[in-house]
Write a structure and sequence with these properties.
The longest helix has 20 residues, at about 280-295. The protein is α/β, with parallel strands linked by helices and about 325 residues long. The chain has helices at about 10-20, 45-55, 75-85, 95-105, 125-135, 145-155, 180-185, 185-190, 260-265, 280-295, 305-315, and strands at about 1-5, 25, 60-65, 90-95, 110-115, 135-140, 160-165, 200-205, 205-210, 215-220, 235-240, 240-245, 250-255, 270, 320. A hairpin with a 2-residue loop joins strand 11 (about 235-240) and strand 12.
């Protein structure tokens, strides 16, 4: 089972490589990737250095081109595919049909993976992408149960990758509308959920308020921790009560399910977090490297070690974790 880790910066890439990643995924410093935040991603010089470092350690590099171009900026995505081919990355991770078609026609030898942003949840969808665009792997959206993942894998013509750890979102991947509603910019096309230019913090007598595009998302008292503001994880007054009305901050953690995921034939586990720090990448990669190796040696007796769970809890969103949709006892 391959461990695929986030690299939102060159230091994060180095941390992932040194901590035991089998592959890293990264993006260019533009809207062609779904983590297009100021200060993140790679310049040409940085990606050259990152490729040398990763290849020197036998680590694969996947390039995320997982947003949706529009007619006026289509050439930017063409250029990104051309750059990826010239760099000879190990695969591009693509969501858009047009981008997949361009990559297939212009660079048939460039390996193509279907992004989670493509929202393909059935083996019929994967078969279509395989037949039309030659995808070799698909990243499944985080909306399927274990039984559904098993069903997809049993009939899929391509390898299947799943998310193992990281932030969750109530929206279906590739279909987020809330940020677009508040700011006029869609994360599906501009690459940033809650674009930084629309975020405002203000100190008030009642506490620090956070707004996105003028929408009040939260108010926190002194000393209360806060993550990066998104509408789906804000606190709102509903029925006279203030609470996380849409989604409570939490992180996916499937470590306890590793034996089952391995038995199903999942070829890779992905760690979410290109927007997170190099320290996060280092700590999470190190824990998951140890867990995957331990599970591969003895799947029947595998149990997450207490120090692994404690390390992941420290970096989990909202300091809590869940199996997400994977665990549905009624199925």
């Amino acid at each position: 089972m391959e461990l695929v880790c986030p690299a939102g910066s060159l230091p994060a890439l180095k941390a992932a490589v040194e901590a035991g990643a089998n592959a890293v995924y990264l993006g260019f410093r533009d809207a062609t990737n779904a983590r297009h935040f100021p200060g993140l991603n790679f310049t040409d010089a940085q990606i050259d250095e990152g490729l040398r470092l990763a290849r020197g350690r036998g680590v694969k590099v996947y390039l995320a081109l997982n947003t949706y171009p529009q007619p006026h900026n289509w050439p930017q995505w063409e250029a990104a595919v051309d750059r990826a081919a010239a760099l000879q990355v190990d695969a591009v991770i693509v969501a858009d049909l047009g981008v997949l078609d361009y990559a297939t026609e212009r660079h048939p030898d460039l390996p193509r993976h279907l992004s989670v942003q493509g929202s393909a949840t059935s083996y019929e969808a994967l078969r279509f992408y395989h037949e039309r665009f030659g995808i070799r792997r698909a990243v499944l959206p985080r909306v399927l149960s274990l039984a559904q993942v098993r069903h997809v894998i049993e009939h899929s013509p391509v390898a299947v990758e799943v998310f193992g750890f990281g932030s969750l979102c109530v929206m279906v991947e590739g279909r987020c509308l809330l940020s677009s509603y508040a700011t006029g910019k869609s994360p599906n096309t501009c690459g940033a959920c809650s674009p930084a230019e629309f975020v405002r913090w203000e100190e008030t007598p009642a506490g620090r308020t956070t707004r996105l595009g003028g929408v009040l998302i939260d108010r926190r008292t002194a000393g209360e921790t806060a993550g990066y503001p998104t509408i789906c994880k804000g606190r709102y007054e509903v029925g006279g009560k203030t609470f996380y009305a849409i989604e409570e901050p939490t992180s996916l953690n499937t470590m306890e399910l590793l034996p089952e995921l391995m038995a199903l034939g999942v070829v890779a586990v992905k760690i979410e977090g290109r927007q997170r720090s190099p320290a996060y990448v280092r700590d999470v990669t190190r824990v998951w490297r140890a867990a995957i190796d331990a599970c591969a040696r003895r799947p029947a007796g595998f149990r997450p070690a207490a120090d692994w769970s404690a390390a992941l809890a420290r970096v989990s969103e909202g300091a809590q974790t869940t199996f997400g949709a994977l665990h549905r006892p009624w199925q």
